[in-house]
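My current task is to audit a protein record that another person submitted. What it holds is a sequence and that sequence's fold in token form. Thanks in advance; the entry in question is below.
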Amino acid sequence: MLSILSKYPSAWAISAEERGWKYRLSIYYAKESDDGVFTCTTPKGHSNEVHVRVRNIQCPAIDSLDRNRVMAVEGNKMHSQARFACMEGFNLIGPEEITCTASGSWSETPPYCEVIQCPPLNLEDTHLRAEAHNRTYGSRVMFSCPTGYRLVGSPVIICLKNQTWSDSPPFCEAIECEPPLAPNNGRVLDTGRYLTGDFLQFTCNAGFVIVGESITVCNDQGEWTFPPPICKPACEFPGEPAHGHVVPTKFHYDIGEMVTVECLHGFRVLGAPRLRCTSTGHWSSPLAHCRPIIYQS
């Protein structure tokens, strides 16, 4: 028959005053020669052993091949730290700080620096011109449009640190001139959409003549080179009779102006020899004719 006491494991018999005792082994400056077994013995003669193994823990040196990476390394012994940053225009890919661990390796893989780039620009506008198209951080892209188009949007955009462009690309808009008003008692011969370089012509109704430019051109500022002309009441040149002429000869005649029909030698005027330009823009009489003079013998 087994004793009930055999169920309890054997151990130190600790007196009441020993229960509050604490024993500590402190090694402040260890070297590999400090390897060994350290024994702690109580005043009562009880002892315990500690096996101490001392190793020089060092992490591998961090390469400095990345010229765009800046690092501050305390050393490569255990618990040493290394901190990283990147030069302007580069992003740090990985941790900003790593620590040399007891296993002799760094807590994480050292980071690297990646150049900051903005996404490619999608320039669908075939008229849009882009200069110095570089996508790296801080680079500028300048835009322009050909003659006959105006730039709508920002003429310059910049690649920012967050890898986005400062603005959307602009676009080129065709320059148009507003349709001009037809002059009173006149009309515009060409109608429709007027782009840079397009021209139009004015004309006046019968009995009126143009005062000003009859043709105007849409320039690259979206303006007409000349304002609409004025249609002024006047008479056109009445023509010349056969075997005669009209004095004075002009392209048009003001209201109230007179002309005289003169015939060549051997001809005489048949009809009113003088015509007056009336307020309606018509001559007071039809143009006279020149008839041969018949001499009787």
Summary: Confidence is low (pLDDT under 50) at residues 1-12. The radius of gyration is 54 Å. The CA atoms of residues 124 and 171 lie 9 Å apart.
